[in-house]
């Protein structure tokens, strides 16, 4: 399914995952509105897309404010005459443990990821509904938003919120033939290069080396290009029947995340008292309690002593 004739906005697309998404969409025929906060980075992204035969323009502005969302949609309409696809990828990190996280640490991350996704999708959805030809909303989540991660209160909250909004938008926009889905990527980027567990694999990718099967299969960890195909697919007509989903991708792995649901239930006449819970909780729910955090398997010896030592630490 070609994307020829389609117009896409990709926020945070000057480098990393966002650039990979924009380039892949362009490769399949879409015309692009690139977004970054750095003029040179945005210009370089546009140049790379046009050098490969695509069409692109840049909007240099931070996502979060409504004004940026309006500027992005206006650029698509002004330069290309329409809008069909929005990919909300822009993000920042301010990692620290709860008791050291400042108001600014929290607000900055939530403003860019969560509010930025909301304002951009609101503006795009308003235009797409008026255009009357359907559309594709693709929002980028994270395993941290699905499972939590030490030191990422702000990021976990924002990414979990994004998936929650996607489920709601899938309901609200369905009648307009606009789908909303989340992609949960795991890839070597500036955001993962600081994670000790992934460092050896990120460094290998930076050197142009093939990641080992342990990374690509067991961890589901790869490069931005491994994720880009899924984004392009969800943007296409071939994905018209996919809506409200959280699709995980990384390395050689593709997955669909489950939505939160009750895993077990119990009833008692008159409701649950403190005494009843104290007596019955363990027998009823002890085996049903859910784990938190992303499980990290121990790498094989062939993955390298240095990596194994980091995992153990």
Automatic annotation (TrEMBL):
> Which InterPro entries does the protein's record reference?
KR_dom, NAD(P)-bd_dom_sf, Peroxisomal_Beta-Oxidation, Sc_DH/Rdtase_CS, SDR_fam
Give start and end of each Ketoreductase domain.
6-194
Q: Write down the Pfam families for this protein, in alphabetical order.
A: adh_short_C2
Q: Which GO terms label this protein's molecular function in UniProt? A: oxidoreductase activity
Provide the family line.
Belongs to the short-chain dehydrogenases/reductases (SDR) family.
Q: What is this protein called?
A: SDR family oxidoreductase
- Quote the Gene3D superfamilies the UniProt record gives: NAD(P)-binding Rossmann-like Domain (3.40.50.720)
* Alphabetical keyword list: Oxidoreductase
SMART domains tied to this protein = PKS_KR
Q: Where is this region: Disordered?
A: 292-313
**Out of the domains of life, which is the source?**
Bacteria
């Amino acid at each position: 399914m070609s994307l020829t004739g389609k117009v896409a906005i990709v926020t945070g697309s000057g480098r990393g995952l966002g650039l990979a998404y924009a380039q892949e969409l362009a490769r399949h025929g879409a015309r692009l509105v690139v977004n970054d906060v750095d003029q040179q980075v945005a210009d370089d992204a546009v140049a790379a897309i046009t050098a490969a035969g695509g069409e692109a323009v840049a909007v240099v502005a931070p996502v979060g404010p409504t004004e940026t969302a309006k500027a992005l949609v206006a650029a698509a309409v002004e330069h290309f005459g329409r809008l069909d696809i929005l990919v909300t990828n822009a993000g920042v990190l301010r990692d620290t443990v709860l008791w050291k996280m400042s108001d600014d640490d929290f607000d900055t991350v939530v403003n860019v990821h969560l509010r930025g996704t909301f304002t951009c999708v609101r503006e795009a959805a308003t235009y797409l509904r008026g255009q009357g030809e359907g559309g594709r909303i693709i929002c980028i989540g994270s395993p941290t938003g699905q499972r939590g991660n030490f030191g990422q209160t702000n990021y976990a909250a924002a990414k979990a919120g994004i998936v929650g909004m996607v489920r709601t938008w899938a309901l609200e926009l369905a009648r307009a033939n606009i789908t909303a889905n989340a992609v949960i990527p795991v890839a070597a980027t500036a955001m993962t290069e600081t994670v000790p567990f992934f460092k050896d694999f990120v460094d290998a990718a930076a050197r142009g080396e093939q990641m080992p099967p342990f990374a690509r299969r067991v961890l589901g960890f790869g490069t931005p290009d491994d994720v880009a195909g899924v984004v392009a697919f969800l943007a296409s007509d071939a994905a018209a029947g996919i809506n409200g989903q959280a699709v995980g991708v990384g390395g050689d792995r593709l997955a669909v995340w489950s939505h939160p649901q009750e895993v077990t239930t119990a009833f008692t006449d008159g409701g649950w008292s403190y005494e009843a819970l104290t007596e019955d909780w363990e027998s009823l729910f002890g085996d049903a309690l859910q784990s938190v955090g992303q499980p990290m398997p121990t790498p094989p010896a062939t993955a390298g002593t240095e990596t194994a030592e980091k995992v153990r630490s």
